[in-house]
Amino acid sequence: MMNRFSRKQMVIGASILVLFGLTGYGLWQAWPRLTDPYYGLTKTITVQMDDATRVLIQQKLATAQASLAAQQSGTDVDTQLYLVIAENEKMLGDLIASREMYEIYLEAKPTSYTGWNSYAKLLEMMKDLPNAEFAHKKTIELLAAEEYYRDYVEFLQANFPDRRAEVKVLLDESYTKFLQTPWTMVALGDWYFETGDCFQGDAHYDVAIALTPENAVNLKKDQQEKLEICEQPR
Fold first, then answer.
1. What gap in Å lies between CA 62 and CA 41, rounded to an integer?
2. In whole angstroms, how far apart are CA 23 and each of 26, 30, 227?
3. Mind listing the pLDDT tens digit for each residue in 48-86?
4. For the chain, first and last CA: distance in Å?
């Protein structure tokens, strides 16, 4: 009886050890995700540039960092230094250092639409798409400029090609605010071509060509190519 009970204890003990082992392995695998706030994101990029340009950027970065360090010992800090550091870190490929500077800047200047726009593009480079989209929306909320509509539309098209309906809403908003502009007409034309409305696509390109006769040759070429694709059986 005693031996039988001991065997049960051994089985239970072995099971507990296996359970602890599996739990430990799971924690070991999950540890980077739990401890690294940027886990799974692109943290650095390789930027191609000549040595002279790299040295110049490094010098600008060092100067801005030194100025910031000197100012932080006082009461007044030139917040533009955060942007200078963020941009130069990005140009050197350190996306995390750039992001941290943007976030400090935006905490100090939450209504800076240029800061939010640059931050959105950086987050897209990092593949942090939810936060990048929030930043694009924040930019437009602060300043509904056509260039920021364009950036948001291009972000959606590049990363969420199935969200065509949302793209159309943004393009319609841009048209309502800025009327017929070359970008809006081309973007709307492309949207109609892609969704199979060849007539509307062609018509919007005609308007874009009339608005920018200096670019008529290239636009007509694009128009014809996209019209031919649109007219193919689906």
1. 26
2. 5, 10, 59
3. 999 999 999 999 999 999 999 888 776 688 999 999 999
4. 78
Query: pLDDT tens for residues 134-181?
Result: 999 999 999 999 999 999 999 999 999 999 999 999 999 999 999 999
* Three-class secondary structure of residue 44 per DSSP: strand
- Measure the CA–CA gap between 130 and 109, rounded to whole angstroms: 21
Q: How many helices and strands, by DSSP H and E, does the chain display? A: 11, 0
DSSP string covering 111-174: T-HHHHHHHHHHHHHTT-HHHHHHHHHHHHHH---HHHHHHHHHHHHHH-TT-HHHHHHHHHHH
pTM over 0.85: no
Judged by DSSP in three states, 94 sits in strand
Amino acid sitting at position 179: L
Q: Which residue has the tokens 């992001």?
A: 99
